[in-house]
Write the structure tokens for this entry.
Amino acid sequence: MIVGTVENVTAGPEVVRDDFTLNLRRDPELAGRPVAPHEGRWVGHLRRIGAARLCDWGLQCLVDDAQTAISELVTNALRHGTGERVVFRFLLAADVLAIEVDDGSTRQARIGKADDLDENGRGMFIVSALSTVCGVSPDGTRTWCCFEIPAPARGYA
């Protein structure tokens, strides 16, 4: 996992083809507390939104991995963030898809080492394994990942 921003990876605004952002208001809570059911539903909503946008862009080949990354990043933000909002961003550049989640927490995400019987602690490991690159902003508030768009799929509309 690297420290940096999505903008460092996407090479600048001139190559951005779509930039979708959604602000989720939430009940501020202490990090690590159970996610309220009405907030947890956003994970599924954002997975479906992400899949629909990828299909619209002709990038079905990225749907499964992107949905898994969305689940992990948004769930982490809801579980560990302490702010009044979570900001979800889905950015498509010329050759990369970026998913970014801002939870307002200055505690940097990290790739954990879970034991075989642990029920938690694998989220960022999974994101790291599925994505081309993943990282966290220097201030710790945003966690993100990028997927390289396969060359044959780069000519979408």
